[in-house]
Design goal:
2 strands, globular, about 170 residues, mainly alpha
Length: about 170
């Protein structure tokens, strides 16, 4: 611990009774706290309707796996649930569909965590994703939310290292 030398910092202390001068209000850019790899920007309509129709639903499984894997690569603090997500889709019938629904709701929280890591206000909601998923619009909603994170980094290509701010 160092103490101020004679004549240093005393003018600020005397100007404000009983303490230090308040810090001046300044706008600072977010400070990077880590790094990850940028995710792929996907067309929400293509991920939701186009490719699943063309591939007879197989792309839905691929999308669910890739989104979970990319979220983990983007921010290592987000648990790697890619294999678990795929298994929930393949074997969810054993739990009468409960396991895939839980994974789908948790995806909303993982996306919100990625939005915070990008320095964005989190707008992704697992509850809204669940309700829209029941109506058939869950993938569309989640892909729009994921694209907000990708768009935060501008033209940075998928797989390139980006900085995390939260």
């Amino acid at each position: 611990m160092s103490y101020p030398q004679q004549g240093q910092g005393q003018g600020q202390q005397q100007a404000h009774q009983g303490g230090y001068a308040p810090a001046p209000a300044q706008q600072h850019a977010p400070v990077a706290v880590g790094a990850g790899y940028n995710m792929k920007r996907r067309n929400p309509l293509g991920a939701w309707l186009g490719l699943p129709i063309i591939t007879f639903g197989i792309y839905g499984l691929v999308w669910f796996y890739k989104v979970h894997a990319e979220l983990h690569e983007y921010d290592r603090r987000i648990d790697n649930a890619a294999t678990n997500a795929l298994l929930s889709m393949l074997f969810g019938w054993i739990t009468l569909g409960i396991w895939p629904l839980v994974m789908f709701v948790k995806l909303g929280g993982r996306i919100a965590q990625a939005q915070r890591a990008a320095g964005l206000q989190p707008t992704s909601s697992g509850g809204l994703g669940f309700l829209l998923g029941i109506l058939g619009f869950g993938v569309l909603y989640y892909q729009i939310q994921l694209n907000k994170v990708v768009d935060r980094y501008g033209d940075t290509p998928a797989g390139q290292q980006v900085s995390l701010v939260a």
